[in-house]
Amino acid sequence: MSQYKAYPAYKDSGVEWIGQVPEHWEVKRLRHIGRYSNSGVDKKSYEDQQTVKLCNYTDVYYNEFISNDMPFMQATASAHEIEQFTLKKGDVIITKDSEDPSDIGVPAFVPHDMPGVVCGYHLTMIRALNDNHGSYIHRSIQSDHTKAYFFVESPGITRYGLNQNTIGNAPVALPPPEEQVTIAAALDRETARIDSLIQKKTRFIDLLKEKRQALITHAVTKGLDPNVKMKDSGVEWIGQVPEHWEVKRLKHLISQCQNGVWGDDPLEDGSDTLCIRVADFDRDNNVVICNPSTYRQITKEHQDSRLVSKGDILLEKSGGGAQTLVGANVRYLGEEPAVCSNFVAVIKPSKKAESAWLNYLMASMYALKINLRSIKQSTGIQNLDSEQYLDEGVAAPSLDEQATIAAALDRETARIDALIGKAEQSITLLKERRSAFITAAVTGQIDLRGEQ
Asked: Is 379 in the same domain as 413?
């Protein structure tokens, strides 16, 4: 931000974490520049109330601006609630409570009147007073200083919330009204530019991930030789395979598939066993990452029958959801003996399967949703029928060729992963710049009055 100049003169703000502000600015509490009230309009519908569109918690949390084209849910509200909480141009809405204190005080701005749309439960509506502008208040609440203030001032143990005094006492570094408009407009332009860059880099990452998966699928179903003679596999999802590959059931490539165990609470006396959970699955790289590690007290009988060793593959048996189907697989590369939890099964490759290659093959099956036909739904939880899943048809080359394919995929995926990592780091830096720019602007550390 070195291209931006500072203001000519500064004064002490009187607020330690804001520091100095431009000499002609004021520092006021939020209660003195805006009216604020908590909405009590919930998702339920009542016969004696009017039908409205409800702007709810997720609408605010995931959107910087609230607009008419958003898919609001339908609810009802009383005449008084409609009068008080209908969204109007210039309103700012913030999240006021959550299980995570970092989710509190997230603001969204309403740039246009929205008749028929009402602010919902767990939200606080702020409406600027006098000549102050909601667009500037919105950006002020986004600043690192205000986020830190809300984080510190939101008490709780399992649920955290902002009370009315905390919201009203939030300090705001306040320029004159016309300068508020200028700053807010400059921030809109700069954040839109940064957001465009983030969107492009996110799309680039998505394309790299698609390329990565296509590379894996091609290698484990067609091999590495583009000139090899092919034959029909008879397996619909695979199609043609190299002529010298064997077509068989997945179960013929494994020697054991054993469900996990949860055991008892750890004794923390050195006798506990590492227990790998679904939460330890790195689904992007198909490996186990235990951070932090979970230890359980496991009987010797269960340790002997369910031992997870280096190179074993772990299969998710229960869990999943609408976006992530059950049936993900990862490879254990640790040296420490372990077991897996009761939602996981340990798969030990047979003498006809190389561990890394088999892990890539199963990852390809998951990406293509071959596991979908083996999923059984039970009380909202997905369960994988492992017997049906392991009966799927696959094609396998020799052990030597499996090792060659796996080594080639290790090299190529590492190269793609490095590109993904650089793009993700770039996005992180852009987000940091975005946040720092907003904070600098609304505390007067940079002068945006000449920005058009």
From this structure: no
